[in-house]
Amino acid sequence: MDETRLPEPETFRTLLKAALELPALKPHAARLERLVDDYARGVARRDSPLAVALVGATGAGKSTLLNALAGQALSREGLDRPTSTAATVFAPEGASADALEQTGARVVRYAPGPQGLWSGQVFIDTPDLNSVATTHRDVARAALERADVALVVMHRGSVAEASQVEFLTEFARRRALVFMLNFADELSPESRETLKTQVRRVASEQYGLPQEDVPVFAISALAAKEGRDVSGEFGALLFHLRGLATQTVAARVRRSNALGALQEVTSQVEAALKETDALLSRTRDALGSGLEKAAEGLRADFDARLGLAHGHLAAEVRRQAGGRFWGPAAWGLRLSLWGASGLGAAALVGRASLPAGLAVAAASTVADAVRGRTRARAAEAAVVEPFEDDFSAESAARTALAEARSVARAGGLEPSLLGVPDLDALLDAVRAARAGAWRYTATTGVAEAVAGWWRTARWLVLPLINLPLLALLGHVGWRVVRAYVEGPLLPMEYFVNAGALFVLLAGAGALLASASLAGAARRASTAGRARFVETLAALGGRLVEAVDDGLRPGREAARRILALR
């Protein structure tokens, strides 16, 4: 990635802020924010002198090396020198050191001169990494956060020291590291090479650096101060350091540091995103499995409720079927069995007293209408409203959510964060699905069942019902005309008997039509059941999608961060 493709620090910071919504990233928020600050510094610093931090264990010779490089006694040397908990910054006059000063470091100005072997840089003398005071490592860490290059000064006993390895691991990918094995004058050539090989192996195994790219120099800082190169490697070290300090290389070092910080952030974000996606996937699978298990219980519950409403469905089927054809039987079909029986009784009573028969017919019709409305309300309540002990639906809902909630909590998260609904919300959704399926059953389901019945009934049932009525009307009409022409006129009893027979035939026709509709109510129930199953499947899909949408802003921000690589 070249410099022109480096993202703007503020863009990077904004994306990270959104990505920190991911619970897997929150424990690392402070470190990630430091890395973004580090990235911003690496992008912003262009022409300023290199900031060089000297780090190492007690007695490694950091101060001696600093004085040798600067060409003057800037830092106090020796094992008995003060061990301050603050870093000391030696900055050339005119060089900015505000950012370092903000860390609590003491800033000392010096005038670069020709006597310096690598003068003109900002040197940071840090506390010892292996000090028993852990605050020393915190100070060194804060200093290295604002440095460009780390000069790691070691003696033979600190090459693989645990505290030093642990400290450098954090910076290995985002700082230029230069390793120096001090006191080379006390080592044989073979020992130097053995220790340098050990340094490269530690850098490769612990820091992930290619061994061939690890710069290691065996030197004597004290001899270098005196102008001597006892190992023949101090000159190579100076050549390497001076190369780092050139404007082009320094810019490349800072860009490399920024890329290292970017890569550390993206690595952490990628791991968190994978962890979050895996948790969402497990939660989604658990919720889908739970919904499948719960669907069987919910279907059984809906079937039981439809059974309670079967009487209303049958009456609604007869009412809609009655509207499909003409004739008195159609009027009777709109009535229930009780209403039809009432009309039959009215016909029989009418033979003895016409007013009494009409009164019985009117009363039975009104009673049937009231009963129908009451039954419709009761049926809807039976299907839609929760029972006082609505244990079956609640138990099914608990089953649907139990595994998903358990998976979410095992991941250390509240289920709602992952889009898993609570029990009440799921029960409300199930009740809404039940209500919608009932409305479909009572309207579309019944209408489709009646339409299927009518395709056959119009050719078979309708003639069987209406032909006897037409024959009776024809016979009465013929008798009336004949009596009018030939006399005598027919008595009133004839018309009463004919009317009663007409009503009985119409009632019989209505009963026949009702019998032919016996399977239509079951077909309407079957359609409603299928609709409920489809609605449950759609509800399950929406709930699973809600899990897929869990933590979406944070996941999208994380993916955009990964795209910056």
Core attributes:
single chain; 565 residues; alpha/beta; seven-stranded mixed beta sheet; 7 strands; rod-shaped
Summarize the structure.
By secondary structure, the chain is α/β, with parallel strands linked by helices. Helices cover 66% and strands 6% of the residues. The radius of gyration is 47 Å and the shape is rod-shaped.
Characterization of the model:
This protein is an alpha/beta fold and 565 residues long. Helices cover 66% and strands 6% of the residues. The protein contains 20 helices and seven strands. It has helices at residues 9-19, 29-44, 62-70, 98-101, 134-145, 162-169, 189-207, 221-225, 234-245, 247-308, 310-322, 328-333, 337-352, 354-384, 391-410, 423-457, 461-486, 492-516, 518-548, 552-562, and strands spanning 51-56, 88-92, 106-110, 122-125, 149-154, 176-181, 216-218. Strands 3-2-4-1-5-6-7 form a seven-stranded mixed sheet, with helices on both faces. Strand 2, helix 4 (98-101) and strand 3 (106-110) form a beta-alpha-beta unit. It is rod-shaped, with a radius of gyration of 47 Å. The model has no long low-confidence stretch (mean pLDDT 84).
